[in-house]
Amino acid sequence: xxxxxxxxxxxxxxxxxxxxxxxxxxxxxxxxxxxxxxxxxxxxxxxxxxxxxxxxxxxxxxxxxxxxxxxxxxxxxxxxxxxxxxxxxxxxxxxxxxxxxxxxxxxxxxxxxxxxxxxxxxxxxxxxxxxxxxxxxxxxxxxxxxxxxxxxxxxxxxxxxxxxxxxxxxxxxxxxxxxxxxxxxxxxxxxxxxxxxxxxxxxxxxxxxxxxxxxxxxxxxxxxxxxxxxxxxxxxxxxxxx
Length: 242
Ligand SMILES: Nc1ncnc2c1ncn2[C@@H]1O[C@H](COP(=O)(O)OP(=O)(O)OP(=O)(O)O)[C@@H](O)[C@H]1O
Fold this sequence. Notes:
Layout: E1 3-14, E2 21-32, E3 36-40, H1 47-54, E4 62-67, E5 70-71, H2 77-87, E6 88-92, H3 103-113, H4 120-129, H5 145-157, E7 163-167, H6 175-192, E8 196-199, H7 203-206, E9 211-216, E10 219-225, H8 229-239
Parallel strand pairs: 3-8, 3-9, 6-7, 7-8
Antiparallel strand pairs: 1-2, 1-4, 4-5, 9-10
Helix pairs in contact: 3-5, 4-5, 5-6
The structure holds adenosine-5'-triphosphate.
């Protein structure tokens, strides 16, 4: 099966000489299309660096990253920006919606920035799938945190990206609302064949994924398929956290 994302022996070192910090060490991982993967690890284990390298936000010191059929290594900055816009959807803990724009305009902005025609049927379909179809004229301040995150998820999917990268997407939500957002990710993976990569500290959140990848000291320290929250917690304890 083709991988939506393929990292081959990715190493990332920040700084040089005595100040050098190696945040990732020869990380290799492939994400099959239509799968939901969580990345966990203690603080400083390299999760953000992993996400940034995978999304083309940061360049590996060595190794290669392939998004769909595009190899990121050789790309110049402008091409990398275009690939990010087209092929990656981002979901953040803090939603990051534009407060002056309506729900519909926030989602529309993504294809517009790529110079694409907005497919309104798809946009409305997506807003329906995330349960926001009847609130398309609201502004972010008129929505709950969970609703804002649903809009952010629709925005992340509107360009039909190769991968949606979610960085602690439930970090600002209460438990129940957070679970609903995780259920939504599962559903979008199942219904649309979307590939999702999520960084989280929460073993329960990770248990919603098809697979959990554990990072420790910049290396992949294990992987669990169809994980339960208890199994994830147990593995994290052995990595030195929770
Ligand atoms: N821009 C940078 N310059 C120098 N060192 C960095 C930089 N970014 C990250 N690091 C270092 O790389 C290592 C991995 O950091 P990273 O942020 O990827 O970890 P993390 O697992 O996401 O941590 P957390 O869970 O605390 O967010 C850490 O030692 C960190 O201090």
